[in-house]
Amino acid sequence: MENYPSMALSGYLRPYMSEFRIVAVRGSLDESVHHLSAVVVGADGRRVAHTGDPELFTFWRSASKPFQLLPLVEDGGVGRFGLDDEMLALACGSHNAEPAHRAVGARWLAAVGLEESQLSCGGHPSLWAAQAETMVREGVVPTPLWSNCSGKHAGLLALAKLHGWPTEGYEAIEHPVQNRVAKAVAEYTQVPQDQLVWAVDGCTAAAVALPLSGMATAYAALGAGVTPALAHIRDAMMAYPLMVAGSERIDTVLMRAWPGRVVAKIGAEGVFSAALPTLGVGLTLKIHDGDMRCAGYALIALLEQITAHLDPAGDWPIDDLIRWQSPLIRNTRGVVTGLFQARGTLHFA
Fold it and tell me: How far apart are CA 264 and CA 285, in angstroms?
């Protein structure tokens, strides 16, 4: 694997106007417009639908976590360390650091024989406002188990221990752990390994960039469970959606509202990947300006269009997702001052 300098990335994300967008409306005016690209791919690799640039080259960020965990499952780590499905779901998640998350993270460390100090992710305030406020009120100084990426890091360290590789520096791009992850990413995205671009994620681990179509292809394989390891990870995420995100988070809410029908994982800078196992498709979207609020709004809007086209007689959990289907803008007193609207349509093949 090669660590490309940031200068090498110039030109990959080409700003332009796309037909699908999330618009913030205040009063009678469109105040902000957030354009996006997205692609939907079938389990056979066929492009089903797209909007914007389906080959947009960008970082997968935390939406790649199931495929960072995959080598450990493929190589026999579940049996070796006695890992359960709740632990696997946490390793795929970007969690809120709620008590349940920290407890499962501690079980990860105990199962593999690790110390919290070995996690390179560091600590940070919770991604959930209510938990973050509790941390401030109680004077909590977050340690690595509070990191939203603690499960991923436990999984990467476990992979190092499984193969007898050094645990020191496991997060670095040149480490054998990351080389093994790169092989898995290349295999399931169908992007040659030498065409993947690497940098450093917010949690210190290696972050991969590739076309949106490759990300969607991998999620189609995840949804279809094309290997026993992928099926195991998919089922763990669907069985324990709280571990994938947490209270009031769209990943968790969506998987609970539509059990067995969707696997969803957000990534930083406006990336979202999802699989629809019963429809046999995977998708990935990218909000061009990286707006994280709009990533969830866009995902729900796209899923509505996908299901309407591919499964018009199917159920869609409208009531549970109203916060993301018709998102309101409120002022500091809670008064509604505007709303977000999804505008545009997917182009189906």
Answer: 12
